[in-house]
Amino acid sequence: MNSKSLYQEVILDHNKKPRNYGALDHASHYAVGHNPLCGDHLDIALNLEGEHIASIAFQGESCAICKASASMMTTVVKGKTRADAETLIKEFRDMATGTLNLDAEHHLGRLTVFAGVRDLPTRVKCAILPWHTLHAALNSVTTTSTEAEDDPMHAAIGDA
Ligand code: ZN
Fold this sequence. Notes:
Layout: H1 3-16, E1 29-35, E2 40-49, E3 52-61, H2 64-77, H3 82-96, H4 121-138, E4 143-145, H5 154-157
Parallel strand pairs: 1-4
Antiparallel strand pairs: 1-2, 2-3
């Protein structure tokens, strides 16, 4: 299967059956993210036990790429430490914006199906939004936007 059809298959699958979709009771960390360029809106709730992400859920209204990215993200970061999640956030962002060398060592695994968004400037922020929102939640920033000037990840994402 080539990377393009794998990508389409993953997007379709995660849209039909989003993983970890819904509310999370008694979340220790929570954030709401917006991507005004597309209209994506999602919230991410998680529970940290010590340094580990014990549970995580997302919900919201978003396009297929954003929803698939969020669904896949929750499956990958669940059980990981906060530090490992931050590494993945950075690597995913760098992959989506085209600055990650995929031939060098990284931890993205099957998340590399999203590598193609770097060639689709209008979709980059859709794919990144869940990761951006996870970063906000882990750092106790409750509302974030891909377009917010004071957002810590704004400069790094740039204006695609
Ligand atoms: Zn979108």
